[in-house]
């Protein structure tokens, strides 16, 4: 079964300290769960022996048959669907592969956007000189992100935006916002030093998830507003 990663990848050879924050159960039936993952927690175990603690291992303590069809990066918080049966695993995997699901993110980015909405089309490829990072590369895989301004944050010289990844490339949201000139605050990989230090965590949260129930055929939609604003520091350049 192919595992679809709709957001970011992370260097699983690094030792990552897991958060003590608990995951939240938002929905449960006999086929699947929908949970809210905290930031600083891997979705699945990393390859490093020290990275065994993860969302999946924690969920399986209560739901032993839970499995993964998509991931969120270690630094990213937000919604995930976890199938509980083989039928649900197969059906939901196909939905992700065929882009029949819809996932929306909220992010706080540096600066104020000049346009209230738009689309970033920038091909992405691995950066061989800075592994495991990626880069904008015209010879890379086509990548597309829709963005929409939700709120300006002048006291932080920042903007709250909604992001929709049309494609699901590694580090897509981070790189596309950087390419737009508005890096995600707190991004340890791609933000400039000032933007990196302006938040104590990556300001990226998967806040909305919609998919079709594998048995009933009903479209299920879930939302979980981000609670990451306490991690946002005032801009040192703010008046």
UniProtKB/TrEMBL annotation:
Keyword Isomerase: yes
Gene3D superfamilies on file: Pseudouridine synthase
Domain of life: Bacteria
Matches recorded under InterPro entries: PsdUridine_synth_cat_dom_sf (IPR020103), PsdUridine_synth_RsuA/RluA (IPR006145), RluA_PseudoU_synthase (IPR050188)
Domain (Pseudouridine synthase RsuA/RluA-like) ranges: 31-178
GO function terms (MF aspect): isomerase activity
Keyword Ubl conjugation listed: no
EC number: 5.4.99.-
Protein name: RluA family pseudouridine synthase
